[in-house]
Design a protein that fits this description.
8 strands; 4 helices; Hypothetical Protein Pfu-838710-001; alpha+beta
């Protein structure tokens, strides 16, 4: 995978960190204590497609909406820049058929996601079918939260949640499913 260029403060860039989660209940307590807001839980089905560069997935948020997400992110542990596009999809089944026919499916990810908001960071507590439980931080960059400040906030959250180097993940759930 190509390493994406460093991104500047824009709505289509975030700083992301993903880690294995040894104790979901403990993480939930920390997330609740930090959260400025709590969004409804989501059941998400992500279908990853083959593509020339980056990653491409159709996310179906059951009972809510569907969206196409294209993103580029380096495969390294720890906080990393992720450049992304999120596009609403009106007919997900038909869209999935078209992408399956033209690109082919890499993997399917079925997960339950709890979402907490802390400043500009989305804290996700994920239970992924066939993989286990995970924690993800997505610090959305903006003029108010530039890259350096967002990286610092992600590092602070990593400390609060007790994430060790051994807990950190390099790849997406889709690639983890492929490898399993």
């Amino acid at each position: 995978m190509n390493t994406p260029p460093e991104c500047n403060a824009a709505p289509s860039c975030n700083i992301e960190l993903k880690a294995r989660l040894p104790l979901l209940d403990a993480a939930r307590q920390i997330a609740n204590s930090l959260a400025d807001a709590r969004l409804p839980d989501q059941h998400q089905i992500d279908t990853y497609f083959h593509c020339r560069a980056g990653r491409l997935k159709l996310r179906e948020i059951i009972g809510v909406r569907a969206e196409l997400i294209a993103y580029c992110r380096s495969d390294e542990s720890g906080p990393k820049a992720s450049n992304y596009f999120v596009l609403p999809v009106e007919w997900p089944e038909r869209f999935k058929e078209a992408l399956t026919t033209t690109l082919g499916i890499r993997s399917h990810v079925d997960k339950h996601r709890e979402i907490y908001l802390h400043r500009n960071v989305r804290i996700h507590l994920d239970r992924v079918v066939g993989l286990g439980e995970f924690l993800e931080f997505e610090a959305v960059l903006s003029d108010a939260y530039p890259q350096a400040e967002s990286r610092k906030l992600v590092d602070e959250l990593r400390q609060r949640f007790g994430i060790t180097d051994d807990d950190l993940l390099e790849t997406s759930y889709g690639e983890m499913i492929e490898s399993a």
